[in-house]
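ZP: hey, is the PRP complex queued? I don't see it on the tracker
AM: it wasn't, my bad. submitting now with these inputs:
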Amino acid sequence: MNRPIRMALTKGRLEKDTVGLLEKIGFDCTAVREKGRKLILPVPDANLEVVLAKANDVITYVEHGVCDMGVVGKDTIMEMGGKFFELADLGFGKCKFALASKKGWDFYRGYGIKTIATKYPNVARKFFEKKGMDTEIIKIEGSVELAPLLELADGIVDIVETGTTLKENGLEVIEDVAPISARLIVNTVSLKMRQAEIESLIEKIKNHI
Ligand code: PRP
């Protein structure tokens, strides 16, 4: 038998939702559930191996072909891009990219260049380029909501899920940028070399979404 199909999962919520999905199919994910600090876990019977990684690294491992497939958020795909096939929307990990600023703030007022803070500079840049708007993009690593409050930025482009973080910090959505959910990505060479196995796995996954 070939080496197991390697599937990189984004650690955390997407990992848990994917394990739930694999179990619905009938795969035994006990090793993943009881992983401790282990990062590569077998899913016996399915000839599958789960690799636990950070979102950006899921794309890196899949692009380089050391993992055949991966589960990663559309947010990371939009920011990083890369050469792989995006073959399914898994329907979980749903949230959105949105432009937000201080409540009641007339974001589009005036002609000055707007300053935007974000963890996703490529997404933000493309969004404003499409509008033909000049912006200064400032990369922030987390708690991006701070930037307008501290008057570093006019607005933020960030992930909004429940909207609680915006609300509790006196911010509001100005405009939705893009919907986000978990996607199944596949290495281009793996899909050719192990087409039957990968397609049958994707079929099972799609039937249980
Ligand atoms: C994300 C995001 C928002 C928050 C949105 O941050 O950047 O801050 O979640 O969720 P909500 O709409 O349900 O409130 P995360 O918790 O990943 O932390 P970070 O800001 O440090 O990246």
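AM: back. Residues 95-180 form a domain with the D-Maltodextrin-Binding Protein; domain 2 fold (CATH 3.40.190.10).
ZP: great, adding it to the tracker
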